Amino acid sequence: MSAILTATSETMRKMNEPMTPDTAGTLSRPPAGPFAAADSALAMDLATRLERVEARLTEAAAQSDRLPHEASHHLMRAGGKRVRPLLVLLAAELGDGTRSDVLDAAAAVELIHLATLYHDDVMDDAPVRRGAPSAHEVWGNSVAILTGDLLFARASLLSAGLGPDAVRLQATTFERLVLGQLSEFTGPRPEDDPIDHYIRVLSDKTGSLIAAAGEFGIRFSGASDALVDPIRAYGEKVGVAFQLADDIIDLTSDAETSGKTPGTDLREGVPTLPVLYARRAAAAGDASAAEVVALLDADLTSDEALEAARSALAAHPVTDQARAEARRWSEDAITALAVLPAGDVRDGFEAFARQVVERTS
């Protein structure tokens, strides 16, 4: 397990390093290093296959015209953790991970993810993604939105090549991604519990695609169908844990470590779990929580006001409560793996679930 833990942790760091065009104009990423250096044949195999997935991504996004070609490769060149294709490959080790269909499935999952990032950045008016200017900052909203559509179309072509089951899985997953975004936009209904609503949004927006990644790996490696449900349960739960950890990172990490200005979610009015916990505590009569809520509801335009709200919320017990909740989701994800055969694959999934809540970026 230690080798997989080392590989997974190092991969989360290395894969966030930017990729740059090589002399042929294609994409290069850090060599298979983190997995190849680890004392594990599985780690080496996954790293090699991830390189092949990277080549498929580059090919799938290729266009004959310059603008769509450059725009489609923009976020690929900016880097990224490649978490979702990695999970496809890891799940596929429960069957025959060498199948070509597995690589296509991994590429399709990442293209879906990339497509959502183009759209998210427009909706959030985010100026930066992965350390580079967002696509809408470079080419405008229309090009960014259309590029997201284009990448989703290319993902659909890859899925179509895998057959109707893949198309169905992609369609149902994308529906949940969109519904989750709409649900976040509209907010909870008066009769809804805001925290329950928030968890459902995270499950749809993040958990659904991670769950689909695991299912793609199982189905297209020829692994037992009995493994689909536990892998999906794991993906749903680890996806929620991942996003809850992001809530903490936004509050407690410095900009150099996290790559974003601390408190950005607060300034944008995003109802993260610490904020929701603070509001619930204030409504129940907690005076210290009420003081935090007053800072959160103030004008956060200035950096000074934002920092006051951020530091007060980070220091309040509700943030530790939110951190504990993220870890609970992580442990529940690990529990879902109990039916998987013992060995490096299950150890790798467990290591990833723990890593997502212990990371700082």
Topology of this structure?
Elements: H1 2-14, E1 20-21, E2 27-28, H2 33-37, H3 41-60, H4 66-78, H5 83-92, H6 100-124, E3 128-129, E4 132-133, H7 135-139, H8 141-162, H9 164-186, H10 194-219, H11 228-252, H12 255-258, H13 264-267, H14 273-283, H15 287-296, H16 303-315, H17 317-335, H18 344-358
Antiparallel strand pairs: 1-2, 3-4
Helix pairs in contact: 1-18, 3-5, 3-6, 5-6, 5-10, 6-8, 6-9, 6-10, 8-9, 9-10, 10-11, 11-17, 11-18, 14-15, 14-17, 15-16, 17-18
Write out key terms for the chains shown.
361 residues; globular; Farnesyl Diphosphate Synthase; disordered N terminus; mainly alpha; two-stranded antiparallel ribbon
Can you walk through the features of this model?
Keywords: Magnesium, Metal-binding, Transferase. It comes from Brevibacterium yomogidense. Its EC number is 2.5.1.1, 2.5.1.10, 2.5.1.29, 2.5.1.90. Its cofactor is Mg(2+). This is Octaprenyl diphosphate synthase / Dimethylallyltransferase / Geranyltranstransferase / Geranylgeranyl pyrophosphate synthetase. There is one protein chain. The chain has a two-stranded antiparallel sheet. A two-stranded antiparallel ribbon has the order 3-4. A hairpin with a 5-residue loop joins strand 1 (20-21) and strand 2 (27-28). The protein is mainly alpha-helical. The chain has a domain at 224-360: Farnesyl Diphosphate Synthase. The chain is globular, with a radius of gyration of 20 Å. It starts with a helix and ends with a helix. The protein contains 18 helices and four strands. Mean pLDDT is 86; it is low at 1-37.
